[in-house]
Each structure stands twice: as C-alpha cells, then as structure tokens.
Amino acid sequence: MAKQGAARKSEAVEHGLKGERGGSRAAELDRLIHERVRLGIVSALAVNDSLSFNQLKALLKTSDGNLSVHARRLEEAQYITCAKSFEGRMPKTEYRLTAAGRRALERYLDHMEALIRATRQG
Amino acid sequence: MLSIMVAPRPLHDRALDNLRFIRQTMERAGSFTAVPGWGQVAVGATALAAAFLAAHQRTPELWLATWLGEAIVALAIGGSTMVRKAYAVNDPILSGPGRRFGLSFLPPMVVGGLLTVVLYRAGLVHALPGTWLLLYGTGFVTGGAFSVRIVPVMGICFMLVGSVALFGPAAWGDWLMAAGFGGLHIVFGMIIAWRYGG
Prior knowledge:
The complex is a heterodimer of chains A (122) and B (198).
Chain A: H1 2-20, H2 23-34, H3 36-46, E1 51-52, H4 53-60, H5 64-76, E2 80-87, E3 90-97, H6 99-121
Antiparallel strand pairs in A: 1-3, 2-3
Helix pairs in contact in A: 1-6
Chain B: H1 2-5, H2 8-30, H3 37-55, H4 60-88, H5 97-121, H6 128-143, H7 150-167, H8 173-195
C-alpha cells in the first residue's frame, strides 16, 4: 500500500511539474529532452562552450545519421544552435547550447530530482 | 493507470539513471582529453622493451642512449597518436584541449632534458630514473588540470614511482622505469582509450 501511495505521489509530481510549466507545451519539452541522444547532446553542450559534430559523435557513441536527426530536432526547438564552416577543405559543424536549452535541461534536472524526492518521501 | 500499477522503484530508478547519465556525459564532455589512450599503450610496450635492453647495457652511456632512443620513439608515437585523435574529432591540435595540455606538459619535459645533462655530467646517472619519472608525472599532473581526472591521477602515480626511484636503491632503477613508463602507460592508456574515445 505504501509503495502504491508513493507511486501515485511520484506520478502526481511528474504531472504536476508538467502542469506548472504550462500544459501540453511543457509535456512536449519534456519528451524532447528525455530521449537519450538528445539528453546527451544537451548535457555535453552544457559544460562546453561549443562542440563539433564529430566530438559529439565520439562522445555519445552514435552514428552520423542518428546524431544529425536528434541535433536537428533540438535545433528546431531552439535548444541548440548550429554553425557550419570550413576548416581548410574540411566542413565543420559546431553546436552550442542556447539559453532556452540550458533552462530546459535545468527544468529536466529539477523534474528528475522531484521524482526521486517523491519516492523517497513515500 | 498503468503507472499507478507499477511499483515506485522503476520510476525512481529511471530518474536516478537519467541523472547518472547526465552527470557521466557532462564529466566526459567537460574534459574531452587530447591524451591518446592507445598511443600510451604503444609507448608502454616500447618502454618495457627499452627497460629490458637498458638493464643489459654495460656502460652508463649505453644505458642513457637506450633510454634517449626510447624517448624519441615515445615522442613520435605520442605525438602522432595525439594528432590522429585530435583529427578524428576535428579538434584543432593548436587550440582547445590539446594546446592547453601541451603548454602545461612541456615545461617539466624541458626541465627534465636540462637536468639529464647536469646529472650525467655530475656522474649521477642513477638519479635519472627518479628525476625522469617525477618530472613526467609532474607534466601529467599540470597538463591534466585541463583534462579528464584520470590524467592527473596517472601523473600522481608516475610521481610516486619516481619518488621511490629517487630514494630507493639504484638497482631498482630499471624495474621502476619498466613499472612507470611501461606498466602505468599501458594500464592508464587502456582506461583512457576505453572511456575517452581512443
């Protein structure tokens, strides 16, 4: 019973946090960051001024296609910016975290911590 | 409804797992090391061979020549693998982590070179293993300040082996050189290669 109560509580926290941030928009943001590769991209960029496509690929151990799809989704949400340039003859893609992306990561961290707190208190 | 039926443990675990993932990603990304892991393993292997050869030399000059030869080989392996690793991630070697590491790593190496001349001239060849290991370790501790935590830890290990070499019996010199330049390079090189992208 106590476990079920805790489960309800943590679920309530999960929904409550989404609710606080404004209904469906907040829920969408959560899903966007919740995916592992995207969470990895945002986390990695949070501790670096910028990272290249190849650096992110090596760091997250993912394929070119997978990384570029997820990076594009974050770019569309304006969580990251992408700058393409040439270094000699080599094309270089550089990613940076935006203020909105940093806030989204902070909210996600708060969300996870709240979930853990709720289950511990339960 | 489904989430109510599921015990709280999985949700709690998932949250913890996500936080752990974020922390680990930040840790690795925050200090992407330019130090080449596999290059170190190769340097370690050549150092073991050099320690074996050096131990069989009859004069201090030949012993010193063996290790200087190894230093050149190690420099070539370390330098080329560092450039290769930087190139693989499109990380310009003359800027970013590689540059910061190099600027901190080089001064102790220059000091090591100068002290080698002084100690050789003074007839203190037995003090060279300890001096080299200590200064090499110092380079990794100072250079590693800008790198992943394992790099300065490796530096400290080199400094510990160097301290033993400096104050221990001269007969331990080649063994400690093998343990330091051979063993530590191989062990830490494998960890760096495995955890920090080659």
